[in-house]
Design brief:
The chain is an all-alpha fold and 262 residues long. It has helices spanning 2-27, 79-94, 99-121, 126-147, 150-173, 180-194, 198-221, 234-247, 250-253.
Length: 262
């Protein structure tokens, strides 16, 4: 059953890849600008006018370049699709089937466009960070109700609030250290990590800062950045969180009783 689930979720990641790519295209704009629908180079309409959270199916044409002028309008072809497929497949391999796996897969689907958008324009749009937190928390509530793990839910909810408060304090002390999107994303990161324990939360947060530090040192070594250069922190928060989730045996041990697939 597990190999079939892994393949199914990986294929699902590939299938939703064009939709995630459309989200990245739509929200890769500077703060204060409206979500885009057309190629910034030639004005060709790539996405139809739809609600911000529901890109048109014409998004399948967004393969990294404008179909009219061939200007780059997103990450190279298949990068987003393969990222989502790889991440969902790994989650299926590590977490027991059920509502807990559903919660982390939902967060992954939100996290992939967030990471690519932040890497592109150094911002994490509210239209993605909000659903990531609310959706993950709601599914975890269902998981707790199904398995009676209310203590895990309470710790997860508190972990999200604590981490968000920590980021808020950091921003108050040094406003340039973290952005508003990082603070909002931290609530989702804290909630997801704290479900299995406070040590997991600390490990995930540390992993994010460690990855960001290594990246910053690599930029300095390659002379592609300076000490004051601002780097997008969202991708490292997300990478650190999922690295700990995938590496920690705790997430296999905390599966929700009664919520397994037959």
């Amino acid at each position: 059953m597990r190999p079939l689930l892994i393949v199914t979720l990986a294929l699902a990641g590939l299938l939703i890849g064009p939709w995630l790519r459309a989200l990245v295209f739509r929200y890769s704009v500077l703060a204060g600008e409206s979500p885009r629908q057309a190629c910034p180079a030639c004005g060709h309409q790539i996405l139809s006018a739809r609600p911000a959270w529901l890109p048109a199916w014409s998004a399948v044409r967004v393969f990294g370049r404008c179909p009219r002028c061939a200007a780059a309008v997103g990450p190279p072809r298949l990068t987003i699709e393969l990222t989502s497929a790889f991440l969902l497949g790994l989650l299926a391999a590590r977490i027991q089937p059920g509502l807990l796996l559903t919660a982390y897969c939902f967060l992954a689907v939100c996290a992939v466009p967030l990471a690519y958008t932040d890497a592109s324009v150094r911002r994490l749009p509210n239209a993605l960070t909000g659903p990531a937190y609310v959706g993950t928390l709601l599914i975890l509530i269902l998981a707790a109700a199904s398995g009676g793990q209310w203590h895990s839910l309470a710790r997860a909810a508190l972990g999200g609030l604590v981490l968000a408060a920590c980021y808020l304090i950091i921003a108050f002390i040094s406003p340039a250290a973290v952005g508003g999107g990082d603070r909002r994303l931290s609530a989702s990161v804290g909630t997801a990590l704290a479900w299995s324990g406070w040590d997991t939360l600390l490990a995930g947060v540390f992993a994010g800062f460690l990855l960001a530090g290594v990246y910053g040192i690599a930029l300095l070594a390659a002379r592609r950045g300076g000490l004051r250069q601002h780097i997008p922190f969202g991708p490292f928060m997300i990478a650190g969180m999922f690295l700990v989730i995938l590496a920690s045996p705790a997430f296999q041990a905390v599966s929700v009783p009664g919520a397994h697939l037959s």
